[in-house]
């Protein structure tokens, strides 16, 4: 991290209460907590997002947001789930890692034209910057996210 990056503050959406927090970039790895609910901003696991919460997390966060679009009936999705959890531990706090159940959030599946699941999508500044259909292991997920990060 260069000096300018270390002194800038980032907007981080709380995974519990959805409050937008300003966190100095250099303090991301120091277990920051939410100013509203006082819970940790990063738990090392994916955040389950509903349609109502999704846009706030991708539009208001300064971090890249890695999304797993999945469904409970999907075998490859269930196989990838523990790998996605492992990837979350390795990617946070430089990424927000989230899951969207396409059965419950059919509007998001339609809006983002999710044609197969699981599908990974990387968002930055509210827009999708990369997409990868199909199951991957934790190392593959992390490598794909880092390779496609536009920062």
Automatic annotation (TrEMBL):
Family: Belongs to the thioredoxin family.
Entry keyword set: Disulfide bond, Electron transport, Metal-binding, Redox-active center, Transport
Native species: Pseudoduganella namucuonensis
Record domain Thioredoxin: where: 17-150
A GO cellular-component term linked to this record: cytosol
PANTHER family: GEO12009P1
GO biological process: cell redox homeostasis
Protein name: Thioredoxin
Top-level lineage group: Bacteria
Gene Ontology molecular-function annotations: metal ion binding; protein-disulfide reductase activity
Keyword Electron transport: yes
Pfam families per record: Thioredoxin, Zn_ribbon_Thio2
């Amino acid at each position: 991290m260069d000096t300018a990056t270390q002194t800038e503050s980032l907007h981080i959406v709380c995974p519990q209460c959805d409050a937008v927090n300003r966190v100095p970039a250099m303090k991301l790895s120091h277990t920051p907590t939410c100013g509203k609910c006082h819970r940790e901003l990063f738990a090392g696991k994916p955040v389950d997002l509903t349609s109502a919460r999704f846009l706030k997390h991708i539009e208001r966060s300064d971090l890249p947001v890695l999304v797993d679009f999945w469904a409970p009936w999907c075998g490859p999705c269930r196989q990838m789930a523990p790998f996605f959890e492992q990837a979350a531990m390795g990617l946070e706090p430089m990424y927000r890692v989230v899951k969207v159940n396409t059965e419950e959030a059919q509007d998001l599946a339609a809006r983002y034209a999710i044609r197969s699941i699981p599908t990974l999508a990387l968002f930055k500044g509210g827009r999708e910057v990369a997409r990868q259909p199909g199951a991957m292991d934790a190392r593959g997920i992390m490598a794909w996210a880092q390779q496609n990060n536009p920062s």
